[in-house]
Amino acid sequence: MDAAAVARLLTPAEAGDALAAALRAGQDPESGPQRTALAVPGGGELLLMPAASGAYAGVKVAGVAPGNPARGLPRITGSYLLLDGPTLRPLALMDGAALTALRTPAVSALALRYLAPAGRPLRLVLFGSGPQAYGHLEAVLSVRELAEVAVVARQPLGARRLAEHAEGLGVPARAGTAGDVADADLVVCCTTARTPLFDGRLVGPGAVVVAVGSHEPEARETDTALIRRSAVYVESRAAALREAGDLLVPEAEGAIGPGHITGTLADLVAGRMPAGGPPGCPQVFKSVGMAWEDLAVAVALFEAAGGNSET
After folding, report:
1. Mean local confidence (pLDDT), 31-50
2. Does the pTM of the predicted model rise above 0.85?
3. 8 Å CB contact between 186 and 210
4. By the 8 A CB rule, do 195 and 224 touch?
5. Is 262 helix (H, G, I), strand (E, B) or coil?
6. Kind and range of the H or E run holding 186
7. pLDDT at 165 over 60
8. Are 7 and 102 in contact (CB under 8 A)?
9. pLDDT in tens, 86-107
10. Burial 105-142, CB ≥16 within 10 A → b, else e
11. Which of 17, 95, 145, 194 is 20 to 30 A from 310 (CA-CA)?
């Protein structure tokens, strides 16, 4: 299944429905296997992410090659192999980068259904101008109406192009700056940054910040000031405390403890946490990406294609 088929078969909202269904069916993110990472000579990283649930199993083999954009190649590469659970017979081979580009915004969209303010158009500050930024714009629009989008990116041309894309979707948009977070209802971070993108003290008490760009203990997109004053939600406590630099760096600094996490995506879907989060503070959703999510979305894609591996 190639990238075009992945994009055609499911929207981020529909992929989010598949994730919610998996959680309601008893999927336990805390019990999922750890991501295996192998450093590759030349500065890249090879990731192995297996999962099994119900009638299916699968594994994603993904490459992260930071030097690829300079070569005119995608930074994320890879494939996803979907298997029949009982027999482990291969069912489909999917474009792994396209699956990730769908899965990650779908996870964010699902979290925003519960955390984002409702009842009025929202102001979005979107950090990044790559595929994840485009996917997250679509994901946010699937769950909330937007009053404005401010795009903040290292490359001014990339920011302008994404702003023009948003305008084409009917949303007023412009290239922005990190200071725009002061007036934002939503802040979405989809970058390869290893250090904070903005001053967390500027974020308003009712705002929601989504950070998806890193899964390394030393890398983060948000700062200690924001995490310390926020209600924090994650996909899995265990995964976040292994991989989420946005939390681990403040913990190493002594600013927060391991118990600072407010809740998980499963808590939100099950209704164990109030919609909108605790009043009077920002809400942060930190995603690292998990194998069970890849499997749930891969199954939804396979079934949307009628169980046809040739689609």
Report:
1. 90
2. yes
3. yes
4. no
5. strand
6. strand 186-189
7. yes
8. yes
9. 999 999 999 998 999 999 999 9
10. bbbbbbbbbbbbbeeeebbbbbbbbbbbbbbbbbbbbb
11. 17
